[in-house]
Specification:
The protein is built from seven helices and seven strands. By secondary structure, the chain is of the alpha/beta class. Bound molecules: NADP nicotinamide-adenine-dinucleotide phosphate.
């Protein structure tokens, strides 16, 4: 297992869920982290070892400022965790709206591509890009067309980046979770708590810390080993749409 001690990392979308758990897990491994999110005030809860900076991945100027400030604060970069993302609604595609489509694709796809482009010139040899994909990026499920589209794009981008980086000492991984209990459903159902809670009812979902452990696993393989992808689902979930629930 390679040590992460003394390395530096950017984690996008670190104000809650998987991003927050990943920032904490990296700090526990001795990594100094620049954490970004729109709700930057929430990043203070991540504690020592984390520099919290405002970041809106849909805004090019915000991303440029964030990367410049992160490089200033950390003095060089080893890891980028492209985690910021969201889904909006769980409806048949014909009920989708221009605004929601733009938000989801701008965040999950353009934001992730933009952050990667801005960070790559600063990644030192031995660097690593980890993208948060999803089981939705591997197999479609009903009533999630735009989210599914965005995560298929993340998967495509991950492998395209791997092709372009071949021959350079930078590793690329996609981590594709199933049902993880975070604010994800609260955001997807626009603050409807009951609806959001229902997603995790009668099933034991994955905890964000368990996804963070997978990210740390990929990062700590020996330098010649590239973990291309990790798929992690709750035992009771066999595919995006198929979840076995107890009464
Ligand atoms: P979450 O708790 O809602 O966290 C999402 C994070 O993304 C928040 O920190 C949010 O911060 C940030 N974010 C959203 N829009 C942003 C923007 N424009 N600029 C910067 N940050 C932004 O959900 P999560 O489950 O941890 O999701 C993290 C990633 O895992 C996402 O890419 C998601 O698609 C993926 N994923 C989740 C699940 C699941 O079941 N939960 C399954 C598979 C994949 P602010 O709102 O403060 O900006």
């Amino acid at each position: 297992m390679a040590s992460l001690r003394g390395k530096t990392a950017i984690v996008t979308g670190a104000s809650s869920g998987i991003g927050a758990a990943t920032a904490r897990a990296l700090v526990a491994e001795g990594v100094r982290v620049a954490a970004g999110a729109r709700r930057a005030e929430r990043l203070a809860q991540l504690g020592d070892g984390v520099v919290g900076l405002p970041l809106d991945v849909t805004d090019a100027a915000s991303c440029e400022r964030f990367v410049a400030d992160a490089v200033d604060a950390l003095g060089g970069l080893d890891v980028l965790v492209n985690n910021a993302g969201l889904a909006l609604g769980r409806d048949p595609f014909w009920e989708s709206s221009e605004d929601d489509e733009r938000t989801v694709l701008e965040t999950n796809v353009n934001g992730l591509v933009r952050m990667t482009r801005l960070v790559l010139p600063h990644l030192r040899d031995g660097g690593h890009v980890v993208n948060l994909g999803s089981v939705a990026g591997r197999q479609a499920y009903p009533h999630g067309a735009v989210y599914v589209t965005s995560k298929f794009a993340v998967r495509g981008f991950t492998y395209a980046l791997r092709e372009d980086l071949l021959g350079r000492p930078i590793r690329v991984t996609t981590v594709d979770p199933g049902l993880v209990e975070t604010d994800f459903s609260r955001v997807r159902f626009r603050g409807d708590e009951e609806h959001a809670r229902g997603v995790y009812q009668g099933v034991e979902p994955i905890r964000p810390e368990e996804v963070a452990e997978c990210i740390v696993f990929a990062l700590t393989r020996p330098p010649h080993v590239n973990v291309d992808e990790i798929v992690i689902k709750a035992l009771a979930q066999s595919s995006g749409a198929r979840i076995l629930r107890s009464e």
